[in-house]
């Protein structure tokens, strides 16, 4: 029995996740053909998704990582978004695709879009595995979207509960919460 089975129920199973990742990868491959694409992966939550998606994109892409934190390990946003790790190169003139795990209130992405736009990229688009529209506090346009979910605090496939459970292989919900 896996360590998480007693506390985590399945919301989106692994095979459905992987199939959707392959579809998104194919779409991104078509849309960015002939362009130099840079993934801006948002730490820490998007890492599992970003690694699988990168392998599903048939283009010579560049990977950058940008750390932001606002939940501080809890289940409610603090409302204060902080950059914890910045990208390693200038972003000016590049075709950027932000890779995120979830758009919930939208506060993190609103901050990030403004921050990256100010660095004058050639283009800036957003790919998010999940969207939770019921809790949106600001409108975020998602160019590539995996799944729309109801109002659950989800875990797994990169998403944490108190910094744990990121290595659960599916998108899950906490049982009894
Ligand atoms: O739309 P919002 O309400 O702003 O929530 C979305 C953000 O919350 C999570 O990050 P978190 O601050 O928990 O950091 P982490 O990715 O390191 O877990 C998640 O990875 C998103 O970046
Ligand atoms: N783990 C986790 N982090 C989040 N950050 C914003 N929404 C969520 C969520 O549902 N789960």
UniProtKB/TrEMBL annotation:
One of its GO terms (cellular component) is cytosol. Pathway: Purine metabolism; IMP biosynthesis via salvage pathway; IMP from hypoxanthine: step 1/1. One of its GO terms (biological process) is GMP salvage. It is an enzyme of class 2 (transferase). SUPFAM superfamilies: PRTase-like. It holds the Pfam family Pribosyltran. Its EC number is 2.4.2.8. It comes from the Bacteria. Keywords: Cytoplasm, Glycosyltransferase, Magnesium, Metal-binding, Nucleotide-binding, Purine salvage, Transferase. Coiled coil: none annotated. It is found in: Cytoplasm. Residues 18-161 form the Phosphoribosyltransferase domain. It catalyses: GMP + diphosphate = guanine + 5-phospho-alpha-D-ribose 1-diphosphate; IMP + diphosphate = hypoxanthine + 5-phospho-alpha-D-ribose 1-diphosphate. The keyword Magnesium applies. Its cofactor is Mg(2+). One of its GO terms (molecular function) is magnesium ion binding. Belongs to the purine/pyrimidine phosphoribosyltransferase family. This is Hypoxanthine phosphoribosyltransferase. It comes from Myxococcus stipitatus (strain DSM 14675 / JCM 12634 / Mx s8).
